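Record Tropomyosin, 156 aa.
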Amino acid sequence: KKLNALRNQADEANNRADTAESQVKELQNELSSKDQEIQTLNNKISNLEFDLQRSEQRIAEYKAQEDANQKGQSLNEELQRKNTMLEQQLEDKEREWRETTEKLRTLELQTEQLDRQCTQIEAERAKLENELEDMTQKYLSTKEELDSTLQGLEDL
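=>
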C-alpha cells in the first residue's frame, strides 16, 4: 500500500512538473510575442517621431514662404489652408504618438507581469522537482527495506 501511495505521489509530482513546464513554455512564447509587439511599437514611435519632425519642418518652411510671399491674397489663403492642414496632421500624429506610447507602457507592464509569473512557475517547478527527488529517495529506501524484509522472510 505504501509503495502504491509513493508511486501515486511520484506520478502526481511528475504530472505537476510537466504542467509547470508547459506553462513556462507558454509564458515564454507569450513573452517573445510581447517583445516582438514592443519592437513593432517602437518602430511605429520612431516613424511617428520622424513624421512629426518632417511636419514641423514643413510648417516652418510654409511659414517662411508665407512671410516671403505676402503679395497675393490667394497665395496667402492657400498657405493658411496648408498650414491648417499641416497643423491638423501634426495634432493627429501627436495623438497617434501618445496612443502608441500608452500601448507601449501597457505592454511593458504586461511583460513585467509575465516575467514575474514565469519566475513563480520556475520556482514551483524547482520545488516540485525537489519533492519528486525526495519521493524517489523515500521510494528507493522503502523498496530496499521491503526487499530486505522479504529476503528475511524467505530465509526463515
